[in-house]
Amino acid sequence: MVATPFLPALASGSLVGLVLGLIGGGGSILAVPLLIYAVGVRNPHIAIGTSAFAVAVNALAGLVSHAKEHTVKWRCAGFFAPAGMLGAALGAQLGKAVDGQRLLLLFAFLMVLVGVAMIRGRHDEGIPGAACNRDNVWKVGLFGLCTGGLSGFFGIGGGFLIVPALMAATHMPVLNAVGTSLVAVAAFGVTTAISYALSGLVDWPLAGWFIAGGIIGSLAGTSLARRLGKGSGATLKLVFAGLIFVVAGYIVFRNF
């Protein structure tokens, strides 16, 4: 464990929470790089375990706001989250067995894929009234299992994967996918954190400061998202995709 530098942890958590609240996903992919390069966590596995727990709590804070706005489709979350928790448990076990530096390089590759996916899907708004039913429940579960596996492997909330997965499986509007995704983000994060905590790979004091910043950022991001409205969503995703490419490039540079 490292001595807890509370200011960098608080600031990093605020940035992750802000992005989560603003566009409903993607912020958690910054958590691991921020913990390693901004906060100073030397062990990538500790960064992954700590970020998984912190992002789960931050997602719950965002979920409260979305639940008040009635944007969460609880039935879909009830099918998606349990399947994803199984995937997250398996992914976490596999992730712990991979060398930390190699895991970071794989993480950078995933970030590039996420950035490309955000750019391609920036105008997809979904179909109003879409929901989970007998025709698509198998697809919801399959998408949940796969996104949960990636979430557990990399120690991320996976909202940037869950939102398009929910939309692809059910064609629900993006606003509902954002709210519903936070249920899964929290469930995946808790599952991954438990696995890492059992191996002694969670820095609890650091997680506390990261969470405190994340709650502040999440509330601010959700409020800002309501003010900006849907029209700015595509621009926000473009900006965030650019940020993801920069961070991915930095990870590769640091490893070579």
TrEMBL record:
Belongs to the 4-toluene sulfonate uptake permease (TSUP) (TC 2.A.102) family. It comes from Asaia spathodeae. Keywords: Cell membrane, Membrane, Transmembrane, Transmembrane helix. PANTHER family: MEMBRANE TRANSPORTER PROTEIN MJ0441-RELATED (PTHR43701), MEMBRANE TRANSPORTER PROTEIN YJNA-RELATED (PTHR43701:SF2). Pfam families: TauE (PF01925). Its main location: membrane. The chain crosses the membrane at residues 15-39, 46-66, 72-91, 103-120, 140-162, 174-198, 204-222, 234-253. This is Probable membrane transporter protein. It is found in: Cell membrane; Membrane. It is a multi-pass membrane protein. InterPro entries: TM_pro_TauE-like, TSUP/Inactive_protease-like.
